[in-house]
TrEMBL record:
GO terms for molecular function: ubiquitin-protein transferase activity. InterPro entries: HECT_dom, Hect_E3_ubiquitin_ligase. It holds the Pfam family HECT. It comes from the Eukaryota. The active site is at C170. This is HECT domain-containing protein. Residues 33-210 form the HECT domain.
Length: 210
């Protein structure tokens, strides 16, 4: 709904979305009269505020009431730093070992390509590559860090007879190219990942700019 609101190009399109979602918008208190195309930004913000803040207020207050048992809430408010590691997720620093353990290897994978993969991870960690560990994870999964609950499905790698890698973010699968030399492997990995992320960033900027 938010995407349709944000991408509306004229008042008629925007009103069409509002009419289709009339009952829902009325239910969540976000129904508003549309008089100009700029109203779409306020409408989208209202919907986001409801889902991110208002919708969770009741469960959050219930959670706080539960924490008051035995004075836990008071201690949290008095010593927030001591409880930070318990309530706040700190992304794990990515390393060659972390990513090597994260990705499972599909059966019948090319042994040489897997060796190149491990060497590549170490090169990225050592700063001898044009990309970063975060770039590699984004290319394969769309995330720049490992989520608190992990990935589903589990990230995997496979080897295909092609020149460049392919990242499938829908199933967290990274397809590695099969090359004759490690140098060719690294150059192709660097080139594909760097340029793919650059193009995705440009497309995202173009989308939000409109």
């Amino acid at each position: 709904m938010i995407i349709r609101v944000n991408t509306a190009t004229n008042v008629a399109d925007l009103n069409s979305v509002v009419n289709e979602c009339y009952n829902y918008l009325e239910l969540i208190g976000c129904l508003r009269i549309i008089t100009s195309l700029s109203d779409k930004y306020r409408l989208a913000e209202d919907i986001l505020v409801y889902h991110v803040i208002k919708r969770v207020q009741a469960p959050f207050e219930s959670f706080k009431q539960g924490l008051k048992t035995l004075g836990v809430l008071e201690k949290i408010q008095t010593y927030p730093e001591a409880f930070y590691s318990i309530f706040c997720h700190k992304p794990e620093n990515l390393s060659a070992k972390v990513l090597s353990d994260l990705f499972t290897v599909c059966t019948l994978s090319d042994v040489q390509a897997l060796g190149f993969w491990n060497n590549y991870l170490q090169a990225v960690e050592d700063g001898k590559s044009a990309i970063t560990m975060e770039d590699l994870l984004i290319f394969a999964t769309g995330c720049n860090s490992i989520p608190p609950a992990g990935f589903k499905p589990t990230p995997s790698i496979e080897c295909l007879h092609m020149d460049f890698p392919i990242g499938n973010k829908c199933n967290n699968c990274l397809a590695l190219p099969i090359t004759n030399t490690y140098q060719e492997f690294q150059e192709n990995m660097d080139f594909a990942i760097r340029n793919t992320l650059r193009l995705e960033k440009e497309e995202s900027s173009h989308y939000f700019g409109h």
